[in-house]
Amino acid sequence: MSIIRLVLGTLLALTTYSSCEAAPAKKRQTAPAAKKPTNGELLANQLIRNSYQIGEDLGATCRRTKFAYLATVLDLNAGLLTSQKGEFETDQQYQERSAKLAGVMAGDSIAICEPLNDNPDIEFRYDTENQRFSGSFSASHNVWRDSKSLGSYKSRTRMGIPMTVKASVEWEYDVSLTIDDTIPGCLSTKYGSSSFSVPATLEKAPLIKYGGRIAYIARLAPPYVKTSETPGEPSLDNPYDVYTKTTTVYARLEAIAIVDNTGATVWKCEVGRLVPNQAPTPIGDPDRWVTVIDYPIEGYRLRLNGRVKAILNLDTNGMPQSCTVTGSSGSTVLDNATCKAWMKNAKFVPAGDSDGKPTAGQAEVVKLWP
């Protein structure tokens, strides 16, 4: 209940400072009307309903959450969530109010759950040879959609041709995720698209794909919510008048997880964490680490060539600390020049320990000088 009181207190402060106009006179009621929950109360309840605590059963969380409801009440409170400094509000009061609001909205993580099967916004395919799923999703995508038919009406085209138009309204509930893409670990993000890999046996795979879910663990972030409306444009070739309202919720992604048809978590990835026990992975094209500009000047006179193989010792940031030649070209001059280029240009995603934390590692590199 504490979070409800905190949300309501924050929203009350928002309304107090952002609107100081006198309330219009009300007629006396002969009987008390049934009390309806305020927008602030609705928001507080949905923040709790869609919240996620570390260690909580994700299967139970996914059965409880309703993303469309959360998006709706965020939209109802959009004016308060984005209100500017009030006319009679000091800078200090505004800063305190804004900080308190940010703390409430980002207080607990939320869980956004989506089905894995027959989901056009999530790619999730099984590789039988390697016994693992390959998945991907866009940072901004649809989570839930609903529609309602409004019947039909008679109309005419601009040329005066009569037609019957079928009218409907669609509600789109989208999420826009901010994703840390600095470490391509268990979740690799590039150009707004994230990919991941989930190991699964042949026996377990169908239970994950059919009836399983992907859960996004995230924290709400400014601007929290935005809406857009698109009117229908029926034509003779497409006699459908579809009015679309899109509500987008903004959040910062913290982790993703896969749960099977029983609700058990079979895989989880914390954003920015490495794959446990992963080997160092090259960043960029290793062939570009050593090029013709690194060829020693003395090599032209001596016509040096050959194959250089070496082991790079890497620190926890994936940067080379030393280069040990394990296969010489036959020339110390060429070996040293090649190692110097690797030390300068090579960069790796660091190795991961059993907990997915960066650790020192080694990587083998090879260069052939023709």
UniProtKB/TrEMBL annotation:
Subcellular location(s): the record lists: Membrane
Domain TonB C-terminal, by residue range, is 294-363
This protein is called: TonB C-terminal domain-containing protein
Q: Which residues form a coiled coil?
A: none
Extract the InterPro entries matched here: TonB/TolA_C (IPR006260), TonB_C (IPR037682)
Annotated source species: Novosphingobium fuchskuhlense
Which BP terms in the Gene Ontology apply to this protein?
Answer: transmembrane transport
Q: Which UniProt keywords apply?
A: Membrane, Signal, Transmembrane, Transmembrane helix
* This protein's record includes keyword Hydrolase: no
Coarse class of the primary localization is membrane
One Gene Ontology cellular component: membrane
Query: What residue stretch is flagged as signal peptide?
Result: 1-22
Look up and give the membrane topology term: Single-pass membrane protein
Q: Does the keyword Transmembrane helix apply?
A: yes
